[in-house]
């Protein structure tokens, strides 16, 4: 469970400001070697620079650490069932070398992975710092303006929810039918091809929204309360790059809700006001409509 694994890592902002970096400029953490047959072809470009992941994965890590890491390749995405996923490599880890050859940036990492003779020995570094993985499987409700949970469990829809990520703007929330569909979108973006007309992705712009936390509801079918939070659109939102309804996002346990909640809070804190009424080119569609997602 991506969200549950990430929840324990979320701490306060500017983590690493006072940590001692080693001789290679790396923060405290675990450096290890792992042998893989090869990353699967559909995994695509999974590495981004620390600067590129700063708005999302590294949003709680200090500028001191970001600067020290420079353009080192960071694991920004893993497809379900891919070699990295099966090897339990985690989001936010840093690739240091492939078969003993240093990887200093994402392009070099990709080149080494695709050209080196397998098996591949990857030297990885797992920072002992908070990594914010703003994605997880949730039950959601977004088609009415009521500030309360559905009266029955059937009122919820299962969605794979991603805030920002590598397939959208950092202030966008996208909802997929499953993690597999998110994988398809990322793969299509990396290959610079259309995802296909069968994918319907619900997309929302979170700028200027308000979050109501610590909500619970109990259903006869559940052994305990469901935890959820609500995303309230701006008072002025009736159309344009916003949505008029209230989004409810739930999870059977509170820990599983933390990563998406923290990611949403980060967005509304950074973007406290809504933009001009005229939609900005390249943003998500009006009123939380279905999106033809492109990588930014």
Automatic annotation (TrEMBL):
It comes from the Eukaryota. Residues 74-128 form the PDZ domain. This is PDZ domain-containing protein.
